[in-house]
Amino acid sequence: MGEDKRLAAVVALAQGMAAAHGSREAWRSAAAGACRALGGSFAALSVWERELGRLRVLVNVGERAEGEDEFPEYESYPVHQFPEITEFLHERWAGGGEPDAWVETAQGPAAGGRPGYVHQRVAALRRRGRGSCVVAPIVLNGRAWGELYVARPAGDPVFDRADADFATVLAAVVAAGIAQAERLEEARRLAYTDALTGLANRRAVDVRLDEAVERHRADGVVVSLVVCDLNGLKRVNDTQGHAVGDRLLERFGSVLSLCGAMLPGALAARLGGDEFCLLAVGPSADEVVKAADELCRRAAELELGDGVACGVASTEDAIGPVRSARRLFRLADAAQYRAKALRAGRPVVAGREGPDDTVVRLADAEPSGEGAGERRRFRGRQP
Q1: Where are the beta strands (DSSP E) in the chain?
Q2: What is the C-alpha separation between 148 and 168, in angstroms, rounded?
């Protein structure tokens, strides 16, 4: 490949990774771009999991052999099977060398290879009908991150030293792309996370609830929402200080997360101030009410505060058609408001009889009285 073509391939790889949305797309773009740049038929990107002493494959692209899934869940290899990696990354590179790639063929090490090791890759090349591969270490933030692997089929020209040098350049581009993807992912995580409790925030709930209601309308999946108001936070702040109030919020956040774990895939969130929620997609309404009941019980046992007012709304209960996230939120909010007014020690459930033998209906879903405006500001989105 000429210099101009290789430069264009580097640019295309960098652009592809920059345009990726999330880590998975970045991994796929990295492997696919390197595969094209090196004229390979197959490529893989793996991460070095130090604590487990293994290389875990993140993505396979191109002509995959049997057992090579695009995004494998369990494909990993003990690092001791590839001593060149341990020797190179721990000794040569850590000792001041530069990361560079090497070539292996189905007949053994090639030009740019590292002779003297037992290469399980050689057997793998033969087994999968591949004639050669080039392996490039990926170094991120001054530490070994993983490797880029590109292979060609048997019968094609084997990789040479020039290919190995080019793979080293590609690995550096991949490292920069991975760093950028990780920074963006962290920024997205922070945008959807409550800084104090580490739970999801209101923005995350809005997005997930909209998606859940669309699934309910399309497939009938059960969507349930638990809205909670932590009692006594203002008193704690006024009498013991905001640091103690923050501790109460954190502790309740932990309780909410624990109870949310009773519902597979549930999202635990802090909406703002003393307001929290659980969003469950799939579990039955009875399962959600049971988790909400446990939440009330545990909140009442907290050292600080005065328990929690808890309202539940589920599409499985008699609440009528749910065509928008706003409607389900309003019903759960109304149930919570009823629980707070009654000082109920258990959740009030929309569409079911509550502690006062009344049923929360849509007509009850607009809180009124002191604090109602603030509740609408936090909870109610404009139609």
Answers
A1: 42-49, 54-62, 76-78, 102-105, 108-109, 130-140, 143-153, 223-230, 267-272, 275-281, 308-314, 348-349
A2: 9
User: Do the beta carbons of residue 329 and residue 209 sit within 8 Å?
Assistant: yes
Full pLDDT tens readout for the chain, 383 residues = 667 788 898 999 999 988 888 888 999 999 999 999 999 999 999 998 877 778 899 999 999 998 899 999 888 887 666 655 555 555 445 444 566 788 888 886 554 445 444 467 778 888 899 999 999 988 887 777 889 999 999 999 999 999 999 999 999 999 999 988 888 877 777 788 888 888 889 999 999 999 999 999 999 999 999 999 988 888 888 888 989 988 889 999 999 988 998 998 899 999 989 999 999 999 999 999 999 999 999 999 888 878 899 999 999 998 888 889 999 999 999 999 999 888 888 999 998 876 655 555 554 444 443 334 334 333 333 22
Report how many helices (DSSP H) and strands (DSSP E) the chain contains, helices first: 11, 12
Q: Phi and psi dihedrals of 266, rounded to 5?
A: -70, 150
Distance CA 202, CA 184 (A): 20
Largest Cα–Cα distance of the chain, in whole Å?
83
Q: Nearest CA to 74 among 89, 52, 50?
A: 52
Angstrom CA distances, 54 to 46, 246, 317, stand at 10, 41, 49
- The size of the chain, in residues, is 383
Separation in Å, CA 61 to CA 42, 135, 149, 300: 6, 15, 11, 53
Tell me the whole-structure pTM to 2 decimals.
0.56
Buried residues in 142-162 as b, exposed as e (16+ CB within 10 A): eebbbbbbbbbbeeeebbeee
